[in-house]
Write a structure and sequence with these properties.
It contains 18 helices and 42 strands. An 8-stranded antiparallel barrel has the order 1-2-3-4-9-8-7-6. Strands 12, 13, 14, 15, 16 and 17 form a 6-stranded mixed beta sheet that branches. Among the domains are: about 15-245, no CATH class; about 290-470, D-amino Acid Aminotransferase, Chain A, domain 1 (2-Layer Sandwich); about 475-585, Nucleic acid-binding proteins (OB fold (Dihydrolipoamide Acetyltransferase, E2P), Beta Barrel); about 645-755, DNA primase, PRIM domain, CATH 3.90.920. It is globular, with a radius of gyration of 30 Å. The longest helix is centred in the last third of the chain and has 19 residues, at about 670-685. About 20% of the residues lie in helices and about 25% in strands. Keywords: ATP-binding, DNA damage, DNA recombination, DNA repair, DNA-binding, DNA-directed DNA polymerase, Exonuclease, Hydrolase, Ligase, Manganese, Metal-binding, Multifunctional enzyme, Nuclease, Nucleotide-binding, Nucleotidyltransferase, Transferase. InterPro entries: DNA_ligase_ATP-dep_C (IPR012309), DNA_ligase_ATP-dep_cent (IPR012310), LigD_ligase_dom (IPR014146), LigD_PE_domain (IPR014144), LigD_pol_dom (IPR014145), NA-bd_OB-fold (IPR012340), NHEJ_ligase_prk (IPR014143), NHEJ_LigD (IPR052171). Its cofactor is Mn(2+). It comes from Tunturiibacter lichenicola.
């Protein structure tokens, strides 16, 4: 991103006095002997003509709000936005201006202890850079007059925005009230689209939600030292304040790798770098938005993939332009000053100009990467050696490398880094079976692997060419207590886990996920019988005591988890079941072992392990040739849905399965999952292989629901992405697509009450294979007349030579669906549908209309043809509706139009109507081959463009 130079304001922004003056109120509100928040006392220079940072922190204090912060004049100008930002231009979000904060404040994610100012959980929800809009470059004047107009370049927040100070009564408030408003541009959204705060609720830095951050307590702003060794975060427990060990010591000046690094000359001798003929010339670009990986449930198998260890660090783009070196974060922030040694080593590379992509990490003693130690280095100033693992080459000596195949880029990169040192090194890869590599990687205790298509070009943003698969570990734990569900139901909220060490039960964390409706009930009953007042754990932390109900430590749980935290607690734990075969007093902390999704033969596993060194970066590409791997996928065998208890056979894990999603029928999340699993073989043919939009109602259909069409990290296993070019900008966007029963049933976990597929398939997005005529009646229209109208639509289509199929919308209307060969583009198909309904309106103007006006719809039926344009969707056959009753969009026989009452079925009544599935009124839908012919187009006076 090109950064325009802006004049420094009159009040010399680099002066420490100016910063001190602006932070006066902030400092007066805090006691830095008690809180470890940064005081902003470091005398760092900050110029307004460098890229300006912004950060939005989601803050669960007394009330949940979003702290919106713009870097200016050496501080973060700050506003508290109660509802968070909105991409809807009509939404004007109240933004209460609060005290200026230090620049260092923007990097914190963790917990401010209760009793301290702003106590609660803090998440870095988004971050990036900002710039004033053209014509509004005098920011100081804008702050004085109450009108700021700017452009955000973040991960979630993009485009033009405005902050406008309110007048009238609002101007007399103790804290100035402003309005945060989205301005018109390509990024704005309609009210029907998902709110960005709902669509992307988690941290932009770690991917965690507020509950996970609070549960892990992996960084607490507190001046008290940890009770356990050199853990990288602060705990509530502790003896005395560690003087001087506070956040302000995390000065971002430098984190040195070793004392002699700066003066040491490079000993690297690079091989001759020859720029390939296919690499076009270009001026060295500004910041390149990084390519990101999609979350996958299992690693890809087969050839054509490069598998790298997933590194747990900071994504850094290194830029060398002659003698100038920059280290930029994934959002374009300049962190060169925070990693001066790495910058110096990049500067020594034997190349004039280059842009590298990689990860800065801290290596633990066992050779894995430690995000805990990395955070300690940056946040607390702890001296830790940093290593830069480079995995891509984006620009080389005036040539664009991004269009070359990845395997070729990595070959050039290996030459550039030949003889690399200890702190700037190549991120190696393997090319053998992804399943075996994944298994061995997990046994090394790393976070997982990233699999990349060997032939892929470098494409900014999240796409399907890079896939990340995280390891899952498991072991038994003793249950020493439990908490109650927040909704008051008869179940458990979380289990308190432990293991024995020297006869003492050591607290290991908690798990609140993985329960089915049945296990909720059974566990609660068993635990109630073991209730006691005495705490069974040896000196448990404060986190363990919150809401705890203690029990005799007799039950043993099998638990999946991601890893152990620095303070010896399990991270992202999920309940798998009870172990009745193991006495509780035999449970010990185990060495991590992978809960393997993929298993290989004995010889294959051994061979693969020799190809993966037990140290990050020790994976050698050429060892893959010697790995005779032949992995066998472990297939899950799932029985058919039982009439007695479907929930026992659905292979998905639900949190709060008893949660009611439809008040009218008392439909629960578990029942919705059961329905999706049972209906999958009938519903999937209508949605698989197509982009789909989901209507999510996490709190049930009575509360606000939202659309989601893009892939993100919160989706259940089995959801994949299809690359869809944006119709305005052409930018590739990852849309949701799915094809398995497991993925469909997993949507229940997200509260998905509607599924809307495109009218075209993934392999041919621009040519629809169906037409939908949506009959949407005025409230005064009775069923017999609506049924008669649907019959008329069918007859008109037959006269043209087209067969059609009927379904209930699940609402008040009907859909007439026409399968067609995908020969014409969206424009022609939309024209066809429009011309068809216009003819019906012209023939019977008193019965039909083709404009969406509700006022004009009185006593008429709206013939909606707008489902037939690119990007439009219609509710899928067998999908529920996000309305009271959760009725189903059901395929109908044409003969059912003669019934005196319309056919309505609901998800909650599935047992009563599933007998209909034995006779499919659409059994010819996918077999029928019919075309829109030139004669049909001529009859409707349509001339397709050449």
């Amino acid at each position: 991103m090109a950064t325009k130079k802006r004049a420094k304001p009159k009040s010399m922004v680099s002066a420490a006095d100016a910063v001190d003056e602006q932070l006066g109120l902030y400092r007066s509100m805090r006691d830095f002997e008690v809180t470890g928040e940064p005081s902003g006392s470091a005398k760092k220079k900050f110029f307004n003509d460098q890229p300006l940072p912004f950060v939005i922190q989601k803050h669960a204090a007394t009330r949940l709000h979003y702290d919106f912060r713009l870097g200016w004049n050496g501080v973060l100008k700050s506003w508290a936005v109660a509802k968070g930002p909105s991409y809807v231009t009509a939404d004007k979000r109240l933004a209460v201006q609060v005290e200026d904060h230090p620049i260092d404040y923007g990097g914190f994610e963790g917990i401010i202890p209760k009793g301290q100012y702003g106590g609660g959980t803090v998440m870095v929800w988004d971050q990036g850079t900002w710039e004033p809009q053209a014509g509004h470059t005098d920011v100081d004047e804008g702050l004085r007059t109450g009108s700021l107009k700017f452009i955000l370049h973040g991960t979630k927040m993009k485009g033009k925005w405005a902050l406008i100070r309110m007048g009238g009564k609002a101007a007399n408030e103790s804290k100035p009230n402003w309005l945060l408003i989205k301005e018109h541009d390509d990024f704005e959204r309609t009210k029907d689209e998902a709110a960005v705060t709902d669509e992307e609720p988690n941290s932009v830095v770690t991917g965690r939600g507020l509950e996970e951050i609070a549960r892990n307590e992996d960084h607490v702003w507190n001046s008290k030292e940890t009770a356990r060794g050199n853990a990288w975060y602060r705990k509530d427990a502790g003896d005395a304040a560690a003087k001087g060990v506070v956040a302000e010591n995390a000065s971002s000046e430098t984190v040195s790798t070793d004392k002699g690094a700066k003066s040491r000359k490079s000993k690297r001798v690079a091989g001759k770098l020859t720029v390939p003929a296919g690499a076009p010339k270009e001026k060295m670009p500004e910041f390149i938005t990084p390519e990101l990986a999609l979350q996958a449930a299992t690693p890809p198998s087969g050839t054509g993939w490069l598998h790298e260890l997933k590194l747990d660090g900071y994504r850094i783009q290194a830029r060398k332009d002659g003698d100038r070196v920059q280290l930029l974060t994934r959002t374009g922030l300049d962190w060169t000053h925070r990693m001066k040694t790495i910058a110096a080593l990049v500067g020594e590379l034997p190349v004039e100009r280059a842009i590298l992509d990689g990860e800065v990490v801290v290596l633990a003693e066992n050779g894995t990467t430690s995000f805990a130690d990395l955070q300690a280095a940056f946040q607390e100033g702890v001296k830790k050696p940093l290593s830069y693992f480079v995995f891509d080459l984006l620009h080389l000596n005036g040539h664009n490398m991004r269009g070359l195949p990845l395997i070729e880029r990595k070959s050039l990169l290996a030459t550039l880094l030949e003889g690399d040192g200890e702190f700037v090194r190549l991120s190696e890869h393997l090319e053998s079976d992804g399943g075996v590599i994944f298994q061995k990687a997990c046994e090394m205790h790393v976070e997982g692997i990233v699999s990349k298509r060997a032939a892929s070009r470098y494409s900014s943003g999240r796409g399907g060419s890079w896939l990340k698969v995280k390891c899952v570990h498991e072991q038994e734990f003793v249950i020493g207590g439990f908490t109650l569900p927040s909704n008051g139901s008869h179940g458990v909220g979380a289990l308190l886990l432990g293991y024995y060490d020297g006869g003492k039960l050591i607290y290991a964390g908690r798990t609140g996920t993985g329960f089915t409706q049945k296990t909720h009930r059974v566990l609660r009953n068993q635990l109630e019988e073991l209730r006691e007042n005495e705490n069974p754990f040896e000196n448990p932390p404060a986190e363990a005591r919150r809401g705890a109900n203690w029990v005799k430590p007799e039950l043993v749980a099998q638990v999946n988890f991601a890893t152990w935290t620095a303070d010896d607690l399990v991270r992202q734990a999920s309940f798998k079941g009870l172990r009745e075969d193991k006495p509780a007093n035999e449970v010990r902390r185990e060495e991590l072992t992978v809960a393997a999704r993929v298993r290989g033969t004995k010889s294959a596993s051994h061979s693969a392990s020799t190809g993966i060194a037990a140290k990050a970066g020790g994976v050698k590409a050429d060892t893959a040739k010697d790995v005779p791997v032949e992995a066998v996928a472990a297939k899950k065998v799932v029985g058919k849905v039982s009439k007695k208890s479907a929930s026992e056979n659905v292979p998905v894990r639900l949190t709060h399965p008893e949660k009611v999603l439809d008040v009218e029928t008392q439909l629960t999340k578990q029942q919705l999952a059961d329905y999706y699993w049972a209906i999958a073989s009938h519903m999937l043919p209508h949605i698989e292989g197509r982009p789909v939009s989901l209507v999510r109602c996490p709190d049930g259909s009575e509360k606000p629901c939202f659309y989601q069409k893009h892939v993100n990290a919160t989706l259940p296993p089995g959801i994949t992405a299809v690359d869809v070019p944006d119709k305005k900008t052409g930018k590739i966007e990852p849309y949701i697509t799915l094809s398995t029963a497991e993925a469909l049933a997993g949507l229940a976990q997200m509260g998905v009450l509607e599924i809307h597929p495109w009218g075209s398939r993934n392999e041919d997005l621009e040519h629809p294979d169906r037409i939908i005529i949506d009959l949407d009646p005025d409230a005064s229209i009775a069923w017999p007349r609506l049924a008669e109208s649907a019959g008329e639509v069918r007859r008109e289509l037959k006269e043209l030579g087209l067969e059609s199929f009927l379904k209930n919308t699940g609402g008040k209307g009907l859909h007439v669906v026409i399968p067609i060969e995908p020969e014409y583009d969206w424009a022609v198909v939309k024209q066809f549908a429009h011309a068809f309904v216009l003819k019906m309106e012209k023939d019977q103007p008193g019965a039909y209309l083709t404009k969406m006006s509700k006022a004009a719809r009185k006593d008429r039926i709206f013939l909606d043809y707008l489902r037939n344009e690119r990007g439009a969707t219609a509710v899928a056959a067998f999908s529920p509706r996000a309305r009271a009753g959760a009725a189903v969009s059901l395929p109908l026989e044409w003969s059912e139009l003669k019934s005196p009452e319309r056919t309505i079925v609901r998800v909650a009544d599935f047992e009563g109507w599933k007998g209909r599935l034995s006779r499919d009124p659409w059994n010819q839908f996918f077999k029928l081959r019919q075309r829109i012919t030139p004669k049909m187009l001529e009859g409707l006076k349509i001339t397709p463009s050449a």
